[in-house]
C-alpha cells in the first residue's frame, strides 16, 4: 500500500501558496481560491471558515458508498462531527489521486476503500494535527494539553475552545506532521458505526447531478447509431432524412458509427431513427450465440491451458469409485446500469472540459488527449456521480471516452452531450463473457472427494486491452476463471484449465467478473458431489475447509443464522453456498420454494467477512444489493445473438430486472475478524445463485445447468 | 404548438413539438433534471412524475396530450407524505447510486397520499414498476413502512 508521504507533492500547505499553484490540479485550485481563508492541508481535505469539512473523493461514486467510506476515514482521524462533513469529486489527476492497488486513478475490483483506508486516515490525522498546533499557538498552550471532540478543539485548563472553522486560517501556518499518529480501533467513533450516507439526502430529493444532468450553454445532444452486428462498419449513409427533422443540427460519421446532433434530446433521438445507413458486415460476428455455445462446449471438453493443478488428477479420476460430470452454460450479460452511458464534452479553442462518470480516470484522460490530439494538461476531466456501473464504466480501452472525444472533434468548438439509449446499452457489447464450464469429480469408496476437474471456455477480458501486459501471465487471463482456482477446499487431486475463445463480441468485467460463473458452477457441483458421498452440504464443506478459518467463519455463522438442519423436506427447501472474492468471504443460505416450475426465493441469510467493516451499514447495503442483482441475473438475464449475429434483447422489457415484489427478505451478519478491510461492492453477488440452485435441486432433483433459470427450466 | 401546463405550481406556456415526451420537456426545456431517463418505454419508472396527482411515466407522455394538466416533479413534491418518505429514505440510507430514487420517492409519496397504511401487497403493486438496478428494494419497502408509521404518529 502506498504511504502518503508528507512531501509537498502529497501535502500542500495553504501557507505555501506557490506549491498550491503549481501542484494542485485546476479544479482544486479554483475551489481553494473560491473558499477564501479555507484550510487545505492536503489534496484530500479542505476546512472552510464556515466550519465545513470537504473531503475530496478520488474514486467514482457509483452507489457503492465511496463518498461515505472515504470521508468517514478522514473524519474519524480529525475527530470531526459527521454533520460538518461533505464530499466532493476529485479532478482527474494521477499525480495526486492514484489508486494504490492499480498505480493509476480509478476504481474497480472492490478496491476503493481497501486501498485508501490508511491513506485517508493519514490525511485526516494530518489535518487534525495542523488544527491542533494552530490552536496551541493561538492560546499559547502546549499541544499535548489540547483535546478534540466532534469538531471542537479545547484546552480545558485555560477554558479555550474553537471550532475547526475558527482555526482554518491559522492552521494554514502549521507545519505538516511527519507521521501523524493514527487511532486504535477501540478509539473509533465513526468507523465501524452506522453513519448517514453523505449522498442520501440529495439522492432522495432529486438534487444530485449525474452526467445526464449537465447542461452547458448552446449544448447539443448527440445520439449514436452503431452497427447492429459486432465488428460491423458503416459502408455508406444518408444523413438527409435526419437533417430534415427540425432541431437536428448535424450528422457525422465517426469511427464507431454515425453521430446525430440535436438541439435537444428528442430531436437527436428522432434523427437517430431517420438516418439511413448501409452496414459492412465483413469482419462482423455472424454466429448466433447458440452456435457459440456449441463451439465453447467442444473446447471445454478438450484439454486446455492449465491454470492450476495438484496431485495426479487423471489417475484419481480413473480410480474413483464414483464419478460425476456436468456442463454449465452462462450467457453474455449486459451491465445495464440505470443511467445509460453518457458524457459531456466542451471544446474551447484548444482546451477541453469533460464531465463523465469516469471509473478509470487516468485511462479516460489519456484516451481523450490522444483522440483530441491535445495535451492532457489542456483537458479538464470532471468525475460526476454515476447512476450505477457494475463494471460498465471501467473500460480498459476507454472506448466510450474515445467516442465522446470523437463526437466533439467532429463538430469543433461547442458543447455536446453524448447520450446512449437503453437500446444502445443492451446492444452495445462489453458483456460478461459467454462461458461454458465442464466439471468432473471423483469420490472414493467412502464418499470423499478425491478428484476435481474444471475446464472453462470463454473470451479473455484483458487480452488486447492496455492492461494485457500487466495482467496476462503465461497467456492466462485469470479474470476468465478466477474463483475456480485458489478454492478453499482441500482435495488431493485437481486441475483447472482455460480454453480461450475468440469473437468480435466485446467483453468486459461485470460485477464480480469471473466469480459470476465460477461460484455457480463450483458450488452447485460440489453440492452434488457431497450428496453423492452422503454428506450434508454444510458439514461436508466444513470438513473440506479445516485449514481455511475465514471460510469456516462465515459458513458456520450463516448455518447458525439460518438454523441449518439440512436442505429440508417441506415446500420450502434450503441451499447453501460459500465463495470468497476480492478477499472478502461470503456464505449464504437461500430459502426457496417451487412456484409454477420456477424458484421463488423467500429469504436469504448472508454472513460476510470483509476483514473490518468501516461502514457496516454500507456493507449490509452492498450485500442486499448484490443479492438482488444476483437473483435477477440468475433468474432472467441473457443477451443472445440470433441467426446472423444480431442481439435479440433491446430494453428492460426483454432484459428484465428483478422487481421489488420479487426481492426476498434478507438478513446480513458481519464478522469483524481484525483483518485489513476488503471490498464489498462485488462479493455479495457470487454466492446467491448457487445457494438458490442447491435448494432447487432439493426440491426437484436437478441443478439448472444453464442461466438464466427462465431458460433452463422452461 | 403552444401548450399550457401547471408545473410544480407554476403556470407555464411552452412552444414545443407536441410529440415531445414530457420527460424531455422537463429536462431539456425547464432544466428540472431530477426526473431521470432510464428506458424511454415505460419499463423502469425513473421518469415518474405526478400528473393531476397520479403517477405517470413521463418518457411516454407526449406533451401535446396533457395540455392543461397539473404536473408535479421530484423537485417540488411536498406535503407530509413526501416529507415522511424523504426522511425515512435518508434515515435508512436507501439510495445507492441514486439514479432511480427520484422515481421511487415520487411513487412512494403518491402511494401514501392514497393509502396512508399500505399493506405489503399495496406496496408491491404500487412500487413493482419502479426498477432499481442497485436492488435497494428491501430498504424501499422498509422506508415506506417507516414513513407510514410516522404519518400515523
Ligand atoms: S424512462 Fe420512463 S419508464 Fe423508464
Ligand atoms: S439506487 Fe441505483 S438504480 Fe436504484
UniProtKB/TrEMBL annotation, chain A:
Pfam families: MoCoBD_1, MoCoBD_2. Residues 205-283 form the Aldehyde oxidase/xanthine dehydrogenase a/b hammerhead domain. SMART domains: Ald_Xan_dh_C. It comes from the Bacteria. GO terms for molecular function: oxidoreductase activity. InterPro entries: Ald_Oxase/Xan_DH_a/b, AldOxase/xan_DH_MoCoBD1, AldOxase/xan_DH_MoCoBD2, AldOxase/xan_DH_Mopterin-bd_sf, N-heterocyclic_Hydroxylase, OxRdtase_Mopterin-bd_su_IorB, TAT_signal. This is Aldehyde oxidase.
From TrEMBL, chain B:
One of its GO terms (molecular function) is metal ion binding. Pfam families: Fer2 (PF00111), Fer2_2 (PF01799). The keyword Iron applies. Gene3D superfamilies: 3.10.20.30, [2Fe-2S]-binding domain (1.10.150.120). Residues 1-77 form the 2Fe-2S ferredoxin-type domain. Keywords: 2Fe-2S, Iron, Iron-sulfur, Metal-binding, Oxidoreductase. This is (2Fe-2S)-binding protein. The lineage of its organism: Bacteria, Pseudomonadati, Pseudomonadota, Alphaproteobacteria, Rhodobacterales.
Amino acid at each position: 500500500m502506498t504511504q502518503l508521504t508528507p512531501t509537498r507533492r502529497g501535502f500542500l500547505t495553504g501557507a505555501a501558496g506557490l506549491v498550491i499553484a503549481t501542484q494542485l490540479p485546476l479544479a482544486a485550485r479554483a475551489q481553494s481560491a473560491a473558499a477564501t481563508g479555507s484550510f487545505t492541508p492536503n489534496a484530500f481535505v479542505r476546512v472552510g471558515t464556515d466550519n465545513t469539512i470537504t473531503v475530496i473523493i478520488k474514486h467514482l461514486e457509483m452507489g457503492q458508498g465511496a463518498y461515505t467510506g472515504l470521508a468517514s476515514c478522514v473524519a474519524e482521524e480529525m475527530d470531526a462531527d459527521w454533520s460538518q462533513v461533505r464530499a466532493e469529486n476529485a479532478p482527474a489527476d494521477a499525480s495526486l489521486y492514484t489508486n494504490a492497488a492499480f498505480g493509476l486513478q480509478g476504481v474497480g475490483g472492490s478496491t476503493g476503500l481497501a486501498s485508501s483506508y490508511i491513506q485517508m486516515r493519514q490525511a485526516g490525522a494530518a489535518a487534525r494535527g495542523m488544527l491542533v498546533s494552530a490552536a496551541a499557538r493561538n492560546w499559547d498552550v502546549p499541544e499535548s494539553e489540547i483535546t478534540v471532540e466532534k469538531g471542537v478543539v479545547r484546552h480545558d485548563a485555560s477554558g479555550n475552545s474553537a471550532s475547526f472553522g475558527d482555526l482554518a486560517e491559522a492552521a494554514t501556518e502549521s507545519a505538516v506532521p511527519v507521521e501523524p499518529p493514527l487511532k486504535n480501533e477501540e478509539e473509533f467513533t465513526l468507523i465501524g458505526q452506522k453513519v448517514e450516507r453523505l449522498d442520501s439526502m440529495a439522492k432522495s430529493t432529486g438534487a444530485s447531478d449525474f452526467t445526464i444532468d449537465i447542461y452547458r450553454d448552446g449544448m447539443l445532444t448527440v445520439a449514436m447509431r452503431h452497427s447492429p452486428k459486432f465488428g460491423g462498419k458503416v459502408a455508406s449513409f444518408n444523413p438527409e432524412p435526419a437533417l430534415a427533422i427540425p432541431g437536428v443540427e448535424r450528422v457525422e460519421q465517426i469511427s464507431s458509427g454515425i453521430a446525430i446532433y440535436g438541439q435537444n434530446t428528442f430531436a437527436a433521438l428522432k434523427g437517430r431513427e431517420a438516418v439511413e445507413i448501409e452496414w459492412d458486415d465483413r469482419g462482423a460476428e455472424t454466429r448466433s450465440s447458440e452456435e457459440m455455445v456449441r463451439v465453447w462446449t467442444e473446447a471445454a471438453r478438450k484439454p486446455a491451458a492449465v491454470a492450476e493443478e495438484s496431485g495426479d488428477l487423471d489417475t484419481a479420476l480413473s480410480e474413483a469409485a464414483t464419478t460425476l460430470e456436468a456442463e454449465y452454460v452462462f450467457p453474455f450479460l449486459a451491465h445495464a446500469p440505470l443511467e445509460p452511458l453518457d458524457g459531456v464534452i466542451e471544446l474551447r479553442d484548444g482546451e477541453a472540459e469533460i464531465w463523465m462518470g469516469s471509473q478509470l480516470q487516468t485511462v479516460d484522460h489519456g484516451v481523450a488527449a490522444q483522440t483530441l490530439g491535445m495535451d492532457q494538461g489542456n483537458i479538464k476531466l470532471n468525475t460526476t456521480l454515476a447512476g450505477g456501473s457494475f463494471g460498465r464504466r471501467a473500460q480498459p480501452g476507454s472506448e466510450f471516452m474515445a467516442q465522446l472525444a470523437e463526437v466533439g472533434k467532429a463538430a469543433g468548438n461547442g458543447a455536446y452531450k453524448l447520450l446512449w439509449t437503453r437500446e444502445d446499452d443492451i446492444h452495445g457489447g462489453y458483456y460478461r463473457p459467454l462461458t461454458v464450464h465442464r466439471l468432473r469429480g471423483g469420490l472414493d469408496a467412502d464418499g470423499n472427494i478425491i478428484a476435481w476437474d474444471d475446464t472453462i471456455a470463454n473470451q479473455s477480458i484483458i487480452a488486447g486491452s492496455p492492461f494485457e501486459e500487466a495482467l496476462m501471465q503465461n497467456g492466462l487471463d485469470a479474470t476468465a476463471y478466477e474463483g475456480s482456482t485458489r478454492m478453499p477446499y482441500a482435495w488431493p487431486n485437481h486441475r483447472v484449465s482455460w480454453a480461450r475463445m475468440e469473437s468480435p463480441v466485446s467483453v468486459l468485467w461485470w460485477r464480480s467478473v469471473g466469480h459470476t460463473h465460477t461460484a455457480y458452477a463450483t458450488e452447485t457441483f460440489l453440492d452434488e458431489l457431497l450428496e453423492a458421498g452422503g454428506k450434508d452440504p454444510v458439514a461436508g464443506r466444513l470438513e473440506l475447509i479445516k485449514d481455511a478459518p475465514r471460510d469456516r467463519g462465515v459458513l458456520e455463522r450463516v448455518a447458525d443464522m439460518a438454523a441449518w438442519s439440512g436442505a429440508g423436506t417441506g415446500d420450502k427447501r434450503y441451499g447453501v453456498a460459500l465463495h470468497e472474492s476480492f478477499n472478502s468471504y461470503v456464505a449464504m443460505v437461500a430459502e426457496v420454494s417451487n412456484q409454477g416450475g420456477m424458484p421463488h426465493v423467500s429469504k436469504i441469510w448472508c454472513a460476510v467477512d470483509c476483514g473490518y467493516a468501516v461502514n457496516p451499514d454500507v456493507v449490509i447495503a452492498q450485500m442486499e444489493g448484490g443479492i438482488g442483482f444476483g437473483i435477477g441475473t440468475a433468474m432472467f438475464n441473457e443477451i443472445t445473438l440470433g441467426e446472423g449475429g444480431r442481439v435479440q434483447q433491446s430494453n428492460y422489457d426483454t432484459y428484465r430486472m428483478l422487481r421489488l415484489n420479487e426481492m426476498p427478505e434478507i438478513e446480513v451478519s458481519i464478522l469483524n475478524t481484525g483483518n485489513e478491510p476488503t471490498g464489498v461492492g462485488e462479493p455479495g453477488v457470487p454466492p446467491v445463485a448457487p445457494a438458490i440452485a442447491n435448494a432447487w435441486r432439493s426440491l426437484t432433483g436437478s441443478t439448472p445447468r444453464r442461466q438464466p433459470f427462465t431458460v433452463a427450466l422452461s | 404548438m403552444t401548450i399550457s401546463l401547471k408545473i410544480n405550481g407554476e403556470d407555464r406556456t411552452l412552444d414545443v413539438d407536441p410529440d415531445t415526451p414530457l420527460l424531455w420537456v422537463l429536462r431539456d426545456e425547464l432544466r428540472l433534471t431530477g426526473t431521470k431517463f432510464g428506458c424511454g418505454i415505460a419499463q423502469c419508472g425513473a421518469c415518474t412524475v405526478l400528473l393531476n396527482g397520479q403517477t405517470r411515466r413521463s418518457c411516454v407522455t407526449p406533451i401535446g396530450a396533457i395540455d392543461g394538466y397539473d404536473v408535479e416533479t421530484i423537485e417540488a413534491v411536498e406535503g407530509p407524505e413526501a416529507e415522511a418518505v424523504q426522511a425515512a429514505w435518508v434515515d435508512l440510507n436507501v439510495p445507492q447510486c441514486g439514479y432511480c430514487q427520484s422515481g421511487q420517492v415520487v411513487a412512494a409519496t403518491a402511494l401514501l397520499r392514497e393509502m396512508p397504511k399500505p399493506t405489503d401487497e399495496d406496496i408491491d403493486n404500487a412500487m413493482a414498476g419502479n426498477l432499481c438496478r442497485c436492488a435497494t428494494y428491501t430498504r424501499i419497502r422498509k422506508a415506506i413502512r417507516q414513513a407510514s408509521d410516522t404519518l400515523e404518529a
